[in-house]
Specification:
Elements: H1 7-13, E1 20-25, E2 30-31, E3 37-38, E4 45-51, E5 54-55, H2 61-72
Antiparallel strand pairs: 1-4, 2-3, 4-5
Length: 73
């Protein structure tokens, strides 16, 4: 991806890049960060962004664009 010459350089200079997204089918109810209950049958897929080794509290704009493009394909 051209993020750096070595893994250590990337860890030091770009700790939040890249962000990883996990996508799967919606199979259970869950509560979003606002506290709202989302029923599994309301949505078809569920996606989570991982940044710096932790689940991101929100879905990033670039992640949303990538999911929309993937859904279109």
């Amino acid at each position: 991806m051209g993020l750096g010459e070595t893994v250590n350089e990337i860890r030091e200079k770009r700790p939040a890049t890249p962000k990883v997204c996990i996508v799967g089918k919606s199979c259970r109810d869950h509560i979003v960060s606002s506290g709202e209950l989302i029923k599994h049958n309301w949505v078809q897929i569920v996606a989570r962004i991982i940044s710096m080794g932790k689940l991101h509290h929100a879905f990033t704009a670039t992640g949303a664009i990538a999911i929309a493009a993937a859904a279109g394909v």
